[in-house]
Amino acid sequence: MSDRFRGTSLRLLLFTLLGVLVMLLLGGGIVTALALHYGLPIGDPSATFAGPADRQQLRFILLLNNLATFGLSAMLGLLLTYRQWWPVAAGLVYPTRPRLIPVAIGAFLVGLPLIGLAAYLNLQLDLPEWMVRSEDTGNAMLAGVLTFESLPELLLALLTVAVVPAVCEELMFRGVVQGRLLSEVMSGHLAVWVAAAIFSAIHVEFAGFIPRLLLGALLGYAYRWTGSLWIPILIHFFFNGSQVISTYLSGEFTPDTEMDSAFWPLLAAGLVSLGATAYLIWRTESTLTSDLPAKDDISG
Known about the structure:
Elements: H1 9-38, H2 52-82, H3 86-90, H4 101-123, H5 129-145, H6 151-181, H7 188-202, H8 209-226, H9 230-250, H10 263-287
Helix pairs in contact: 1-2, 2-6, 4-8, 4-10, 6-7, 6-8, 6-9, 7-8, 8-9
């Protein structure tokens, strides 16, 4: 941890919590008011968003919610703590280990079959009724977001599902939580997994907790290895964006809870992916020349 940012974690935590509280009140009020104004049945597991106007309004509301809850909250905490140095503190810098960019991207791609296997196994768990209802509510809104009839709908869906979450969630969970708060109280390796667990839990999507945990860990390693938040932002964007594009091209939205892949090929691919991903993590971690987080080299 560089001297410039040492000992700032408590102040950042307090300011970030303040930002979250302010944005939940302000942003939540705006989102609720807009939902009532548009007459959208948000929170109803049986809701349908049949018209293009309803779907665009839903996308806009979800975009604002993500922007306020994660992006603006994180920015407020960083700005109040680090002032003009907040982009550097967040990791929005040129990669300090550019040679590890291909490794970070490769580990993510190699880990995709493992994420697929984890998604399948997670779906085999029996969830309480209230969790099932929460999943149904999320699927109803996601179906509205990922139903398209025009190019403007596709573009706003990409902004809502790919661009804003990639920037805002990475800023909060990798830039603030992993990179600044957790790195002062635990090893960088453990911080990756704790931040990933928080990242997964905060989505309140129980049928996808394990795959999202693995996704968060791979994004966390991309940040840890390269020292730049731009790398996990780009990976997150392409991961979410590819799901939007594939849904647009297929013309049909299939919820993750209706995954029907054959088990044995999925198991074989997942086990190979597990071995390859674990090896890449082990080898890359062992080649790091210092235990200091790469982001603390503020010369970039």
